[in-house]
């Protein structure tokens, strides 16, 4: 059984249908990337999986149906989202943002240990612990957004364009942390990323989205190595 199993996912905004029956899976501990042009429906997919917009079709995590759950219940079930464009609480301190990420947990000592851990991984978060999140740079906010999402100890982390607007050096650091989290904690990642080369280095499997449908899927290696696929689908 896959960790995440999505079948026939349809979602949109009011009368505007964006996703037209998406099927996808993520195995436990796997890194999967969704690629596609602007407007293909990548963010909409992430929102539907997080319970932020209504959908039809079926979403299960470890066989458990998530379709009737609210967004907080989905976090409690084990899926956490790093939204596009940071999505930190700008008027809360860095520390309070991390605490909010753990709002559904009761293990106080482990929460404090996790905060220490993330402050060690991203030293800037320790340095800015008492500062309002909105005063951080874009890169620092993205690190906070990732750390906050991981504070719920998800089994599956959804990351919507984590590299957007960041300097290449920061992107490299962030992707290294995502790879570490996957390797060391076994957290599965479902990533939306415009930077196809970067994403294909991290991911083991790929879904290509076009106007709300999966038009191709396969091993990242195949997409990395095949010039015709790269030209036809990835514009590389
Ligand atoms: P991008 O790479 O540009 O972020 P995407 O693949 O993530 O693109 P989505 O953000 O999922 O695409 O958008 C898919 C379609 O849904 C687009 O046509 C977009 O205009 C539309 N859309 C997105 N958000 C809304 C909204 N809140 N209300 C109405 N339409 C929306």
UniProtKB/TrEMBL annotation:
The keyword Transport applies. Keywords: Amino-acid transport, ATP-binding, Nucleotide-binding, Transport. GO terms for molecular function: ATP binding. Gene3D superfamilies: P-loop containing nucleotide triphosphate hydrolases. The keyword Repeat does not apply. SMART domains: AAA. Residues 1-236 form the ABC transporter domain. It comes from the Bacteria. Transmembrane segments: none annotated. Belongs to the ABC transporter superfamily. This is ABC transporter ATP-binding protein. It comes from Actinocorallia libanotica.
């Amino acid at each position: 059984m896959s960790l995440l199993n999505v079948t026939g996912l349809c979602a949109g905004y009011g009368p505007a249908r964006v996703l037209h029956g998406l099927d996808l899976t993520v195995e436990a501990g796997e890194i999967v990337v969704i690629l596609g042009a602007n407007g293909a429906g990548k963010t909409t997919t992430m929102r539907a999986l997080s319970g932020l917009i209504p959908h039809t079709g079926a979403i299960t995590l470890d066989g458990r149906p998530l379709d009737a759950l609210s967004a907080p219940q989905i976090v409690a079930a084990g899926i956490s989202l790093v939204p596009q464009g940071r999505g930190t609480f700008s008027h809360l301190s860095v520390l309070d943002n991390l605490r909010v990420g753990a709002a559904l947990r009761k293990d106080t000592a482990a929460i404090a240990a996790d905060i220490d851990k993330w402050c060690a991984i991203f030293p800037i978060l320790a340095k800015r612990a008492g500062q309002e999140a909105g005063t951080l740079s874009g890169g620092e906010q993205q690190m906070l957004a990732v750390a906050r999402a991981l504070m719920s100890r998800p089994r599956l982390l959804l990351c919507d364009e984590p590299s957007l607007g960041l300097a290449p050096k920061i992107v490299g650091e962030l992707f290294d942390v995502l790879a570490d989290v996957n390797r060391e904690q076994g957290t599965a990642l479902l990533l939306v990323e415009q930077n196809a080369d970067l994403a294909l280095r991290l991911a083991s499997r790929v879904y290509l989205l076009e106007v709300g449908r999966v038009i191709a899927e396969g091993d990242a290696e195949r997409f990395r190595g095949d010039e015709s696929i790269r030209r036809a689908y990835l514009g590389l």
